[in-house]
């Protein structure tokens, strides 16, 4: 069965990284693709680069629109896509040649609605992807609804992000990303997972996140928009109020987000900071679903407070540069 796969790439002022991202999609071993490049009002040469690639490859469609943000660009792609499956790739990231083939084979082989691959952080635009086709020797995990809904909040195997996943198109019926908000995935992806019956994961590193010093997601400047994530979390708690397992995972994630915001934004976030309850702290330490690194974060935060944690976090980030 040859399925048409839509790959949606939101594009905004990424001329330095865009060519490598698009080329990695063009080079996919699975060729029946619809590549949708959404130029979200770029002021650099990004839109021109998209048009140049479209002239060379008839699988590429380019949408030029006024700037509306990441969510609006993704939604524009969803509204015009023709594929039976859809995947999102950020325009400064890149993927291995086997990215789509591996994800589709995983879904078809296990009759899953969502397939997920692993990833690697890269710190420069010169690193190359190293991957291979998934075979019978690779470890593959399938999760039913009672398991995968909580897993996305613990982020031990996979997370809430829209990237490095392949979704059945039908999962997005009636659902779109919220325009103009930070942490837009939190307000959408859990509901996409709620619509699914089965999810499959393979720890094959096929997606490469480029860490940029100028990235919005890495800024330390607090904005009222950062509070949207807590509204999204409250909405999630209301929607999953009868699912105790998922609700427990959401509560953990809310504490983790609160901790991260306190450490990242410091005194600017102080009026909104929620104290970490001793009960939640103990539950986190003994929860087998929580990653060891997250347990360390909670331990440091509970014992030393956000200011000491902020210094440790800053020191760690300086080491990574």
TrEMBL record:
Classification via SUPFAM superfamilies: Nucleotide-diphospho-sugar transferases
GO MF annotation terms: hexosyltransferase activity
Signal peptide from the UniProt entry: none
Pfam families in alphabetical order: Glycos_transf_2
Keyword hit for Nucleotide-binding: no
Keyword field contains Glycosyltransferase: yes
Every Glycosyltransferase 2-like domain range: 6-172
InterPro entries: Glyco_trans_2-like (IPR001173), Nucleotide-diphossugar_trans (IPR029044)
Keywords, comma-separated and alphabetical: Glycosyltransferase, Transferase
Protein's UniProt name: Glycosyltransferase 2-like domain-containing protein
Organism the protein comes from: Campylobacter ureolyticus ACS-301-V-Sch3b
């Amino acid at each position: 069965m040859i399925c048409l796969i839509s790959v949606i790439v939101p594009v905004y002022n990424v001329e330095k990284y865009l060519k490598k991202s698009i080329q990695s999609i063009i080079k996919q071993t699975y060729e029946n693709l619809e590549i949708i490049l959404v130029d979200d009002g770029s002021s650099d040469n990004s839109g021109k680069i998209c048009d140049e690639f479209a002239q060379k490859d008839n699988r590429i469609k380019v949408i030029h629109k006024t700037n509306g943000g990441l969510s609006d660009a993704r939604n524009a792609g969803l509204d015009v896509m023709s594929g039976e499956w859809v995947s999102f790739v950020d325009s400064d990231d890149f993927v291995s040649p086997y990215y789509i083939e591996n994800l589709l084979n995983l879904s078809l082989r296990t009759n899953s609605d969502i397939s997920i691959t692993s990833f690697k952080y890269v710190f420069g635009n010169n690193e190359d992807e190293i991957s291979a086709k998934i075979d019978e020797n690779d470890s593959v995990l399938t999760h039913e609804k009672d398991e995968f809904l909580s897993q996305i909040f613990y982020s031990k195997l996979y997370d809430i992000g829209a990237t490095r996943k392949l979704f059945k198109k039908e999962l997005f019926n009636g659902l779109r990303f919220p325009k103009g908000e930070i942490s837009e995935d939190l307000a959408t992806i859990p509901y996409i997972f709620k619509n699914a019956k089965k999810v499959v994961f393979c720890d094959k590193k096929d997606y490469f996140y480029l860490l940029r010093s100028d990235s919005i997601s890495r800024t330390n400047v607090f904005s009222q928009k950062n509070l949207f994530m807590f509204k999204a979390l409250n909405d999630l708690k209301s929607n999953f109020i009868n699912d105790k397992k998922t609700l427990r995972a959401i509560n953990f994630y809310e504490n983790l987000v609160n901790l991260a915001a306190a450490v990242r934004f410091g005194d600017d976030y102080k009026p909104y900071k929620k104290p970490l309850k001793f009960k939640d702290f103990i539950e986190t330490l003994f929860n087998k679903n929580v990653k060891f690194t997250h347990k360390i974060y909670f331990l440091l935060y509970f014992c030393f407070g956000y200011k000491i944690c902020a210094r440790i976090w800053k020191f760690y980030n300086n080491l990574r540069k």
